[in-house]
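Sequence in, structure out. Go.
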Amino acid sequence: MNDMTVGAPERANFSDMKEGTQEDWEIIGGCFREFAKGHPDRILEHLKLLGGDFGGFKVDRLTHCLQTATLAHRDSKDEEYVVCALLHDIGDTLGTFNHADIAAAIVEPFVSEENHWMVKHHAIFQGYYFFHHLGMDRNLREQYRDHPYYERTLEFVSKYDSPAFNPDGETLPLEFFEPMVRRVMAKPKRSLYKAVSE
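Output:
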């Protein structure tokens, strides 16, 4: 059944990708670019889902993310780093068992290799503070001791992530960070589809 109607957005004609034409992919590429413009909005909306989710902590997950970003910002970290701090736990809702991987995948196209690595591995590094209470090896991070981004990730966890569960801690509002998210995510640096976004 074809649901093409007058005034509806143009759509490709194929039902199997193997049949796609240049014209089809120009239509799809145009839709992709238009949809990509709303990417920061979708990220910010998803981050808001962490509000009210305490998970047993003293502050909810959104407050934790905001405090982590606030601490990094107050310590004069650059905008990209602050956005990574803000989004480092955005994967909590969909990636219960691998939240850091989800967050890392979201920021990867827009950030440096070192910031991506930091976000991807922060869960292992923060485990030093509590894994032993759960019957796990708190020293898992030591496998990365010789990695060039070990110290960067250690600093992130110890200075910004770990102390950001304070009900009385400074917590800048999400609106403060929104322009940073939009700037950092305005254009991908590394992506399979980078050329399509230009």
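Check: The CA atoms of residues 91 and 103 lie 5 Å apart. The chain has a mean pLDDT of 94.
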